Amino acid sequence: MDLGSINPILLLASIMAASTPILLAAIGELVVERAGVLNLGVEGMMITGAICGFALAVNTGSPTLGFAAGAAGGAVLSLLFALLTQVALANHVASGLALTLFGLGLSALLGQGYVGVKPPPTARLDIPVLGDIPVLGPILFSHDLMVYVALALVAVVWAMLKYSRAGLILRAVGENHDAAHALGYKVVRVRVLAIAFGGACAGLGGAYLSLVRVPQWTEGMTAGAGWIALALVVFASWKASRVLLGAWLFGGVSVLQLNLQAAGVAIPVEYLSMSPYLITIVVLVIMSADKSRAPASLGRIFHASQ
Fold first, then answer.
1. Per-residue model confidence (pLDDT) at position 150
2. What torsion, rounded to 10 degrees, do the Cα atoms 143, 145, 151, 153 define?
């Protein structure tokens, strides 16, 4: 066992990258749930975004187009969920589970020709001066653009929900869709836009997985990341800042357990592999002790004729 081989600066820098896929998916799902929609299809949208982004990046040589395709793939799949729940008025839980199964199967089919293929590399940003700061430079300013896009999305969603009229309407729809409809707000339109945004974020997170975190395509490579994103939203009490902390926690424990394995720590690999999920759930349960309630209309079907 050689714990001295673990570089704390590289460890902290890796946390930001490791948390990005979960953070993107979770912040999108936060918006969806604040609109009163429970979408359990995050895993399916992430894996669809992973193969769509990977395939286009490989065929065009452009990671940027790959990320755009990942977001588009997740959004398109989410619109299927919107069609089922907002037009056909199907049950949210059943539709979300079906979406996950469909996404996993579709991605396996589309990805058959991409196993073993390497995607084009995603360049890191070279930020002058800031990147040269000792310790802080490598930790905060040596990442690819998508890491900062994820952080910017958290800030934008937080500000939108707290201060903007659009955020007020979204929260009104999530709290009482009948009252919002009586006030003249287009409940279905608001929810469909929220669902599409959540799908795009989940797809973007999936594309980041296949293009940056694990730069290859393997079937089922999301490995439960979508379910962790769902758990983050609930245990973070539907607050954007807590989602960020939860994603960093999961990313940190994931990176740490890999470093401990490499250092030869005398703990069975199976226990180390399960630790990110277990520790994240335990800590977030403690964080949610303030008893913040879910949006009152979460998962409820809206009947426009009422």
1. 94
2. -170
